[in-house]
Design goal:
The chain has helices at about 40-50, 70-80, 95-105, 115-130, 150-160, 170-180; strands at about 25-30, 55-60, 90-95, 105-115, 135-140. It has a five-stranded parallel sheet with strand order 3-2-1-4-5, sandwiched between helices. About 35% of the residues lie in helices and about 20% in strands. It has a domain at about 5-15 and about 20-140: HUPs (Rossmann fold), CATH 3.40.50.620. α2 packs antiparallel against α6. The protein has about 200 residues and is α/β, with parallel strands linked by helices. The structure holds adenosine-5'-diphosphate.
Length: about 200
């Protein structure tokens, strides 16, 4: 499943419950891998940035997986896509999200919920993060029905099989894909091993 070995799996560290930090309710962190960035991610960014003075999109490293795009490439793509969004910053996320949030004076971690299949892991992660730092809340945002079915792994599969991805992601992603690799329908194998 897409959950295995993700950046957030390592969220274990000493209990910092009741930390004296006073984070700012107007700053939110949206962490993720964004590999590939989909229209679902962009929808979430757009909706969140209306709610907060500052939205920090934190791009994580997944130590368990070889990423399709490098961290730097993912950051560049996100910066291009959010260039006109004044209150959105794109940064690299190392370590624990709650530590990052505290360092950046943020009170809120935003996560997207697409389906029940997201829920169990997200709840576990949110509760662990709350235990680590009582001052930082995880807020879940319901995915838009127009993009609820989108996932990065599905887009990678479509691309590898030579399918049209431009309807699912921003043009910057398509440009980066074309620059990096050419789809090879004959040789490509689905990550999920299921037909699309
Ligand atoms: P992660 O490895 O942290 O799950 P992703 O890049 O897959 O990183 O997702 C980052 C966040 O965006 C997660 O909270 C995920 O639930 C949310 N998300 C992913 N796809 C969508 C979508 N289509 N609509 C809304 N939220 C989404």
């Amino acid at each position: 499943m897409r959950r295995a070995g993700r950046w957030s799996r390592s969220d274990v560290s000493p209990d910092t419950t009741n930390s004296p930090q006073q984070p700012n309710a107007r700053v939110a962190i949206y962490p993720g891998s964004f590999d590939l960035l989909t229209n679902g991610h962009v929808d979430l960014i757009n909706r969140c940035r209306r709610l907060y003075d500052r939205l920090i999109v934190a791009v994580g490293v997944n130590p368990a997986k070889t990423p399709f795009f490098s961290l730097e490439e993912r950051i560049d793509i996100l910066r291009e896509v959010t260039a006109g969004m004044g209150n959105v910053e794109i940064v690299r996320l190392d370590g624990l999200t709650v530590h990052f949030a505290a360092q950046n004076d943020a009170m809120v971690i935003i996560r997207g919920l697409r389906a029940m299949s997201d829920f169990e892991f997200e709840l576990q992660l949110a509760l662990a993060n709350l235990k680590l730092n009582r001052n930082i809340e995880t807020l879940f945002m319901a995915a838009d029905p127009k993009t609820i079915y989108l996932s990065s792994s599905m887009l990678r599969d479509i691309w590898r099989h030579g399918g049209e991805v431009s309807v699912f992601c921003p043009p910057a992603v398509v440009r980066a894909l074309l620059k990096k690799t050419k789809p090879n329908p004959g040789e490509a194998r689905s990550e999920s091993q299921r037909p699309l």
